[in-house]
Amino acid sequence: MVKRHFKELDKEDFMVIYKAYIRPHLEYCVQAWSPHLIKDKDCLEQIQRWATRLVKGLKKLTYEDRLKQLGIYSLEKPALDTYGLRGHSQKLFKPRCRTTARKTFFSNRIIEQWYRLSQHVIDSSSVNVFKNRLDEAWEDMGIYK
Asked: What pLDDT was estimated at residue 88?
């Protein structure tokens, strides 16, 4: 419908139409919240790729460059959990796992340890400061040394 009514759009008009008609449909479907198949993610991402080509002057740019120019993000962007009220401000999304093998992957196991860190450790000013504070936190938790 958008393509039928608008052959080319400028950035401002595209963003109004995109935010009102395109993005809500992409984010509402179940495949966007919990995609189990790569083809589901690819199908949704293809719709967004197509939509960004409608913007005048951006058609020949790469998909990533079009996203940057428009100030929108890919549907494959890792999600941050902003709903948790406890712990520190940098919450990570922990996907559901159907198999026990996947549950034991390092990327899933470490999230629980990450949640246990204090805001003081997370707000470190450099990598070395973070490492030192992390060592201290792990010693306090009985995980390290």
From this structure: 61
